[in-house]
Amino acid sequence: MKPTVTAFANSPDQGRGLARDMQVRWALEEVCQPYDVRLVSFKEMKQPAHLALQPFGQIPTYEDGDLVLFESGAIVLHIAQTHDGLLPKDANARARAIAWMFDAHSTIEPPIVDLDIAEMLEDDKPWGKERLPLVEDRIRGRLKPLSVRLGDADWLDGDFSAGDLLMIGVLRRLAGSGILEEFPNLAAYVARGEARPAFQRAFEAQLTVFKAASGGR
User: What domains are there in the chain, each with its CATH number?
Assistant: First the structure.
């Protein structure tokens, strides 16, 4: 039986591959695991059937037999632990890759999400224009040590891993802000991730849903 992932029936990301199911799709594509997708509307996300899977009414969820998971990071970790290809065999390298997974969602992502909030929800507030540069500087404060750590390597720690997958997924949220381009090695790092065939398959699958919901545009 194939696992089932839930995704937006009509994603607010306008087909940019930023919705949280993207990272799960990408992980499944990397390990060559076929999967089904169940599309849910915003209304359905708040209904009892979906809340039983995701208590906060969000996506994605992951169902595989008796196992039900939510939170994209936890789902990607499960996929990486149960399939070859996303975590190193060496125990220490494996632990470091998992540490990068946590870093992506716990250290790098929060100020980037704050930027989304500042631009979309707080721009019209009296203090909005003053807060935005502060948020941008916090992002730079996270990206600078990440850039130094990556250096001229292709990936964060040896071969491509689930740590890179989540980190690139987070950094992609900066598209259009101009901030990522201030760190050329990080911009190139993201481009390498986006060039991976598994990413391309996952992106196209999510984009197809958006095109269908928007009448093919």
Answer: 4-85+198-213 (3.40.30.10), 91-196 (1.20.1050.10)
3-state secondary structure the chain: CCCEEEEECCCCCCCCCCCCHHHHHHHHHHCCCCCEEEEECHHHHCCHHHHCCCCCCCCCEEEECCEEEECHHHHHHHHHHHCCCCCCCCHHHHHHHHHHHHHHHHHHHHHHHHHHHHHHCCCCCCCHHHHHHHHHHHHHHHHHHHHHHHCCCCCCCCCCCHHHHHHHHHHHHHCCCCCHHHCHHHHHHHHHHHCCHHHHHHHHHHHHHHHHHCCCC
| Tokens representing residue 217 in the block | 């545009």
Cβ burial of 206 (10 Å; 0-12, 13-18, 19+) is buried
pLDDT digits (tens, 9 = 90+) for 110-168: 999 887 765 555 565 656 566 677 888 899 999 999 999 999 999 999 999 999 999 99
Structure tokens at 3: 């696992």
pLDDT digits (tens, 9 = 90+) for 38-63: 999 999 999 999 999 999 999 999 99
Distance CA 39, CA 10 (A): 8
pTM, rounded to two decimals: 0.93
Q: Is 178 exposed, middle or buried (0-12, 13-18, 19+ CB in 10 A)?
A: exposed
For the chain, what's the residue count?
Answer: 217
